[in-house]
Amino acid sequence: MNKLALSDDILMKIEKPARYIGNEVNAVIKDADQVKVRFAMCFPDVYEIGMSHLGIQILYDMFNSFEDVWCERVYSPWVDLDAIMRKEKIPLFALESQDPIKDFDFLGITIQYEMCYTNILQILDLAQIPFLASMRGTDDHMPIVIGGGPCTYNPEPIADFFDILYIGEGETQYRNLMDLYIKCREEGLSRREFLRRAARIPGLYVPLFYETTYREDGTIASFTPTEEGIPDIIRKEIVQDISNTYYPMKPVVPFIKVTQDRVVLEIQRGCIRGCRFCQAGQLYRPVRERNIEVLKSYAVDMLKNTGHEEISLSSLSSSDYSKLPELIDFLIEECGQKKINISLPSLRIDAFSLDVMRKVQDVRKSSLTFAPEAGSQRLRDIINKGLTEEIILNGAALAFKGGWTRVKLYFMLGLPMENDEDIYGIADLSNKIAALFYELIPKEERKNGRVQIVTSTSFFVPKPFTPFQWARQNTKEEFLDKACKTRRAVSEQLNRKSIKYNWHETDLSVLEGAFARGDRRLSQVLLKAYEKGCFYDSWSEYFHNEKWMEAFEECGLSIDFYTSRERDINETLPWDYIDCGVTKSYLQREWERAQKMETSPNCSQSCQGCGANSFGCGICFT
Amino acid sequence: MKLRVKFRKYGAVRFIGHLDVMRFFQKAIRRAEIDVAYTSGFSPHQIMSFAAPLGVGMESNGEYMDIEVNQTLSSHEMVRRLNEVNVPGIEVVSVRQLPEEAGNAMASVAAASYTVRFRAGREPSCRYTEELSSFLEQEQILMIKETKKGSREVDLKPGIFKLTALDGAICMLVDASSSGNIKPSLLIQALLQYNGEPLKENALDQCLGDCLITREEMYQNAAENSPERWISLEDAGFDIVGTEIAGSDTAGSEKTGSDIAGCETVESKMEAADHEP
């Protein structure tokens, strides 16, 4: 490759110029004149974050397997380059060809977390694409802006910025969309007509063709298509057989160190557990396992093609994969000779996993992670976290005897029906684990002298399509008060010197909550905040809460309306037109069970009738 | 068995920093399925050593990396395999076996040659090429060297072994040892200053912006009885012949001269304009 979009002067001036030059191993270069569709795939955050995302690598591989499509990558320019691009009016460009995004047919944006919404605006702004889909109306030369990812299950706060939102897994409908696009262009049809037809493809939501009306109290009165033939409900797309679909055998290997600098093996999609606070656990139902022989061959090929020195299993709960022991034995055998590290996140701590971890990592340097999420059994039952104090203490005891001395504990503050006892329970459980160490391990065998417990709390943000979608979120003041109580309780424990307590930022959790369950009116707030200079909000050094508060104020919208208000069970929710598989009646049932402190069995124990069996695959049929 | 890998770096990958080039090669060696040796311990890593780091933005026709392998294929085959898994802009030129007693690339480097070309429209206004001899005849060439610990004054003179100009390009052979390394941009800065060129703000960065610097070759001290003062790092090793897998005892030795693109005239000009103290 000869051409670079940025001059040497600029590249010498900015931090990590390697973020912007493309040219990485396995990056796909095609002849632009030989393809019919040019697709720019964007992760709206800095390169190191975006390059670590598996979903983009899957779709990049899929698109480039289409002979008539060339898919390239683009990430948010970091603040240093952002300022230069604005000043010098350099249009945002794709990494592979270094061509301006505005000349592409599609700009696809993956939307993984709420706090990247302003970065979507940054991308559009730098790409010189109008923010509002309605303003791109007559200009057939503007790329079609399409979004996907978990945040699209309530896309309303960002709906105005997208021509299309793809609800569900990308492997299924993109080929149809490409064919439709090519056909419409050949027939000389307008942008609007293309979008009208796209809206009829399953899983595709075209916000332009819908209208929301509101009641006086601010809740939604109606949400309806504005034209004949546009569907009322958009149903999630999923891959039925995940052993027989796209998977990147040659993922792009970045030059610079990125967050996930390893081969990622997605062993299954979905989670059987049904924790009531967890959105991913509902969105990706039903659980579908990938065939173990397929996984073995993927591992070998991907390691060979990338040269990575580490492989990681990916899933919401790896311990639930039915052939896990066989897979791990294979990897240990395969990787041992080649000095490749194995990373095993999301394992339940038990005799099996400790044995495996001892084989693949240095016990002295690694730590154990438990996620009890709540401090008391009562609250753990409410959230349906199938983890008891006994399981935790047994796991910790095994680990301490095995040589581990570091434990991480994750909890949430602000869960529904939480009281002070639950908060004290966090400190109490931390203390019990520390005490267990001193009880089990005689003084002369304590390698680092002391056990290290790191207790972290995050603030609970209710998410759409969970049984807690109706729950009120705590206010900033409540959050802070709870964090203070936790800190005080930890400091009163006997083993306080062995416990370190961390808590999360409050302002960010409040904002995240507003956008998670927000409606279309919030797009105005996003535009205002962006105008005021907000972007990279998930980077604390660039987060300016006061600008956000001003933006809400100027739009005449109340943050409390979206966060700390308990929704009535009959209220029309902004995401009600999306069908993600689990039914509203199931979620309501679970919400009621939570209030009665009743737990529910997981999918492998007995079916709860969530509705995901309508997809006709996965655990529902095994 | 120690192998010395010579490679070029040019084009977009000029903007990849030194540590990332190391990471790149660690992965490339795995992709090429080279039987590299690892350190022992819980987190083994490839036994690998790089010669003097190349500044971001610079090109090179003579970069070096030494690796330790358990077994090797022929030089030709190793070059082919590595280039098969490379990216445009990183190109392996040769793979040679080092004698057992050879020092590693990092410790061996004594000098490096560079070509500096000013970008079109950004040439200095002074006629610096005409004053080369008098510049070099100075008693001392004092410049401020910025280091991590602060800045200090250094005399460049003892570290300048050659300095010539040809067709708008400046060729230099300078000290590249760990103790006396001279950055080509610093020398260019000294030359321009000597010729009365006004100093720009961020002079050194500007210097790199105004010109494209190519490292042509790296040299180590020649053996004591050798007529040459230096040999290229490449010439410290010998070619591995044959396509059979070779252990160190079976490897053949075939010495070939180095073939350096770009500023290959440096060596010949060295004799013409000898400025050694």
Description:
The complex is a heterodimer of chains A (622) and B (277). The model of chain A has no long low-confidence stretch (mean pLDDT 95). Chain A is an alpha/beta fold. Among the domains of chain A are: 8-235, Rossmann fold; 262-361 and 579-622, 2-Layer Sandwich (Transcription Regulator spoIIAA), CATH 3.30.750. Chain A has 20 helices and 19 strands. Chain B has 277 residues and is of the alpha+beta class. In chain B, the strands form 2 sheets. In chain B, strands 1, 2, 3, 4, 5, 8, 9, 10, 11 and 12 form a 10-stranded mixed β-sheet that branches. In chain B, strand 8 (160-166) and strand 9 form a beta hairpin. The radius of gyration of chain B is 20 Å and the shape is globular.
Find the count of extended strands of chain A (DSSP E, 2+ residues): 19
Please describe the biggest sheet of chain A, giving its number of strands, its sense, and whether it closes into a barrel.
6 strands, mixed
CATH class of the domain at 8-235 in chain A: Alpha Beta
- Kindly report the oligomeric state of this protein: heterodimer
Radius of gyration of chain B: 20 Å
Tell me the CATH topology of the largest domain in chain B. Answer: Alpha-Beta Plaits
CATH architecture grouping of the largest domain in chain B: 2-Layer Sandwich
- Any idea what the CATH superfamily of the domain at 8-235 in chain A is called? Cobalamin-binding domain
